[in-house]
Amino acid sequence: MIPPKPTPRDGRVGLFGYMRRFRADILSAQPARLYRAWMAEFRTPFFRSYMMNDPQLIDIVLKERPDDFPKSDRVREGLAPLLGRSVFVTNGAEWKRQRRIIDPAFAGGRLRDAFPGMLDAAQAMIERATEGEHEIEELASYAAADVIFRTLFSVPIEDALAAQVFREFRNYQRTQPLLNIAALIPMPHWMPRFHRRRTLVAARSIRSAITALVDRRAVQIEDGSAPDDLATKIMTFADPDTGHRFSVPEMVDQVAIFFLAGHETSASALAWALYLLATHEEAQDRVAAEATRDWHTFKFSDLSRLPYTRDVFRETLRLYPPVPMMVRETTRPETFRNRQAPTGAQIVLSPWHLHRHERMWDNPDGFDPDRWQTGATRESARQAYMPFSAGPRVCTGAGFAMAEGMLLLARLIGAYRVAPIGDPPVPVAHLTVRSRDGIRLRLTLRQ
What is the pTM of this model? Predict the structure, then answer.
């Protein structure tokens, strides 16, 4: 069974036709030829964009000359109400200073320190789950949010402030596309950005609750009662180059992206992984077999004993990368495959198309976790696999996300058999790759 994939648009469309499709869903707005093309140029009266699938060009942009291709301000336009000046949207010296403070908290040993919080969240997920029909994206979102609150602030999702962040974020992610109209048409700073009212209200509520969480932690740090979790590590760590520590407003910006990157993207991947296993029973049985173990004594190092679960999660990230597109910008004239790109051109890197590229993957649209044990796939992955980006801007929480995804997937499949209900889900891009109408699965308790 081939997993669901958006139907690409047919033929050429004008700018406003493209904008209408783009705002509804980025994925289906794109033509089918992008699954075979090495590069595509798109011209409008306002800008030029270049979608790149050529591995050599991707390496230039992300690895060889990343400072020449900063993140596009057009991406920030859509996410500014929630993310402020977080590490996800900044560039240059500001971004480097933020990463120097954040990265140590997610280093190898620190990830091991955070793992007990993941285990507690996984156990809580099993205790909350029930037999019957579920909209699985809701279950996955709740579990992933619980992981973030337990590892970042040492509180479960039932904490009042944590619950407020989660509730409002559900409203936010359904109303806010990854890119808004300001990403397509350059506007002066004084012009309104056309964010939906619900988006702005939800963003203000989320940031208010996050501010209260950060303020509470700042008081605990001051009186010496703060737990040694990720929030404390980040808020007390000084930039080794400048001695700067995050202020409360700066930390609010960073927590907003931790929640987006650590909850929304993880929930997307977990929901699609559960759907893929629901529609591939043999793969589900193999994950369940690995999950038959004593979870009370499970440690971070025991993740290596879940090799097939790891490959299922890798394959899910290939087919349904949570962040389907990344946008960079040229800072000077460039030449790409004999095409002249002016300063300010938008460089679109699409994990969605790259991971399904017909020239770089065998059976690109098929679900095949075993492919990850072949030499051909290792070569494909080297050139055409970047669910967490690549180069200096690779996601600092990539290891965290893999550990969380493997653990939650194994725990749920070990406890419940999952089966699909109704029509196949239709992938669309909101903040992440989600299903247009949700993903409905039936959970049956294993004996």
Answer: 0.92
